[in-house]
Design brief:
Length: about 210
């Protein structure tokens, strides 16, 4: 049975662990990406591997294709595809929320922080639900891109490998939130968002 916001207010069973105003999300992301853990090591390692793979592909196609075509695919991978896939990334966050029963799901952005986010207003997510929501875009998009890079021809390997790296960096906020759970892995953490106040709340189950 899912919990309600009112259930988390029961102080004998839950304790407020952290409140994150949306205006401070960038600071939160930096803070939790700097906290050393297996998860942050995995994130930075994957980013490095994807970048290294893109560099190898670029070296391999040097001199084979016209420089104008390479430049176009570079622009495609660095800018066009990342912009196109922002709504795809956020939609992939929405699917687990929807499947778990969340009703009031909203997409938002903060251009000052260059952040895009999906939240379910006043919906309490269990640890497993939240982890699935956070991981889904990284797993689905990375897996799909790796498949395409293997089977598509050279220039597409180049642009998609760049995009694979860029998209992994776009998942920094997701990994920062996941690292909050990882560094508190001895605790059972529930979370909900108040989209009117633009705040996220994380509660620890104490009983």
């Amino acid at each position: 049975m899912s919990l309600s916001v009112e259930d988390l207010a029961e102080q004998t069973k839950f304790r407020l662990l952290l409140t994150i105003p949306y205006t401070e999300l960038i600071q939160f992301i930096f803070d939790y990406l700097k906290r050393k853990s297996v998860l942050t090591f995995f994130f930075w390692f994957v980013c490095f591997i994807f970048l290294f793979g893109a560099i190898l592909i670029r070296i391999k196609i040097a001199g084979i294709f016209p420089s104008g075509h390479i430049l176009f695919h570079s622009f495609l991978g660095f800018i066009i595809l990342p912009l196109i896939f922002i709504p795809v990334h956020e939609f992939l966050h929405m699917i687990p929320y929807f499947l778990s029963g969340a009703k009031n799901i909203r997409v938002g952005m903060d251009l000052k922080q260059f952040l895009f986010y999906v939240s379910a207003h006043r919906y309490v997510a269990s640890p497993l639900q939240f982890i699935i929501v956070a991981f889904t875009p990284f797993v689905v998009i990375s897996g799909g891109l790796l498949f395409l890079i293997i089977f598509l021809p050279g220039l597409w390997k180049w642009s998609l490998s760049i995009f694979l790296f860029v998209h992994s960096t776009m998942c920094a906020g997701d990994f920062a939130l996941l690292n909050l759970y990882f560094v508190n892995r001895g605790k059972k953490i529930y979370t909900w968002d108040d989209l009117d106040k633009k705040e996220a709340y994380f509660y620890e189950k104490v009983n």
